[in-house]
Every structure is written in C-alpha cells, then in structure tokens.
C-alpha cells in the first residue's frame, strides 16, 4: 500500500527522515549483540514468503437457491399471486432470493417497485433475476423496434429494483397456432415463407445490440435464455453471444428447455451462464415432464466455477404449497 510522504517537519533537506536517529549513547554492547542475534530471526518471520504453487482451486460454496414467482402461478387461473405474496412465501419456505416474472407484475409505479424491494430486504431475500419476454424475429422493422423499447424498459425496471440480470429471448417465427401446439412439436416450428434462420439471427443481433448501451449504463446483464425459437439450442444462444461479444450479454441456462441431448447442451452453455433456472415437475409437467439429474447438473456447473443463483421454476400440476418445498430440498441437496 502506498504510504503518504513524510511532512517537511519530519525530513532533512536531503530527504532523510530526521525522526530515525542513530543509536543512543546509552545503547550498550549487550543490547547490540542481542539485536544482531535477533535480526536474522525477525527477517525470517517478517519477510514475505514466496507464493506456493497453486495446487487446488478455491473451495466452492453452495449455490444460493432462489424461486421464480412463476412457480406460484404457472399461468393457472386459480393460483396467480402478487409479487409481494410470492416474496412472503419464499421467505417462509427458506429461499435465498426471488426471481420476478415481469408479466406477473400488476403495477410498475416507482412506489410499487420500492415497496417490493423493501419487502424482499425485510424478508432476508435478494431480488436476483427478472424474467422478461420479447421477440426480435419479425421482418417488420417497426415491430422489432417496439421490442427494443420494451426490453430497454425492462432493463430500467430491473435497475430500479436492484436486480443485476434479466432473462431475454430471441423470439420465434410465430408460425405455430398457439403455445400448446409449439410444445406438442417440441418447440420446433417452420420459418416464415421467404426468410431464413440467418435473417432471423441478424434481426435478433440488431435488437440486442440496441439494448446493450442501456444494460451497461444500468449495470444489468442480459441473460439470453434457451427458450424456443432461435434460442431453442445451445448453439443458437452461443451464436448470438459470440457474434455480439459483449460482457453485458451472457446466458440464462434453463434446465427444462433442452429436449434433446440435454446434458451435452448444458455443458456447452454453462461457461456463459450468469443465471440458471431449474425446472421441477411434481405432479406431472404442465406441457411435458423432463427427467433432470440435478447432481449431474451441479457437477457440470461446478466444472466451470459457476457460483451464481439457481432459480426454481416449478412447472408441475401439484399444488405449489407442497411441490415448492420439495423442490427446494432437491436443489439444496444437489447444489450444497
């Protein structure tokens, strides 16, 4: 550490510190011999040791476990709770944080945002993620620009809530009749006639790049999720992350959205992950049930030193009152 210079009062014209005087006349022979014998010992104790070769990595701690407010709702008419109700339940259950689903919010006024933030703080919870929806896969530039504005608005909401990352999507072609049909086809749908995937990726890249200045200004990382459309595979997500090459665009890894070669795709996406969403399906999945070995997932994430949040997205038919505590127990055990 740099030390402040000695004051003029404490220095001689030559720059020598006048407070460091020579031996006192009373400094006898016995004291001189004792000092000479002690010097090598002091040098051995005080001299910094050469750094030892690093043989092991840092000891990892368990990942913190959050819950998405989606887990309490799941788009069911009979279980849509307010964000504050979800925060209270998360605190009672023993989670470390909460991920907010944007479309679940009923009020975006600043007063409400600050009340939500205070509610989480008093419950001992981090607001750690903000799950948003957008699509840039439109031939119409005006539609893409509308989604850019929406995403920038979501970044600013996350900033006001103190949330460091938001989930973003590529979007999809929109040629499926509805979401149920898309799920029945395992997330695969035909392209718009006359357009290619390269066209779609160019539109997504353009849209995300327009959002990045706001993300950087607000300190909010965009986490591009493997969430159907052009981001259905790890390769699709990584293509955009690598082409854009910004520290403010990384990945949100959803364990429930790889329907083929899931563990190989987890391994591909894990090095870029800043947030992980962990699906469970107690009572059977809403659209499908995916078998996920969370011990294996934990090892994949540990291999790339992922230390961020694991956010539960319960997507089963069982009551959230019983399924969410069981899900927490599963994730705590795997990511301890």
UniProtKB/TrEMBL annotation:
Keywords: Isomerase
InterPro entries reported for this sequence: IolE/XylAMocC-like (IPR050312), TAT_signal (IPR006311), Xyl_isomerase-like_sf (IPR036237), Xyl_isomerase-like_TIM-brl (IPR013022)
Chain segments carrying region Disordered: 1-28
Every Xylose isomerase-like TIM barrel domain range: 87-333
PROSITE patterns per the UniProt record, alphabetical: TAT
One Gene Ontology term of the molecular function aspect: isomerase activity
Pfam families to which the protein is assigned, alphabetical: AP_endonuc_2 (PF01261)
Domain of life: Bacteria
Polar residues bias: start-end ranges: 1-14
PANTHER family recorded: BLR5974 PROTEIN (PTHR12110:SF53), HYDROXYPYRUVATE ISOMERASE (PTHR12110)
Protein name: Xylose isomerase-like TIM barrel
Naturally occurring in which organism (per UniProt): Stieleria maiorica
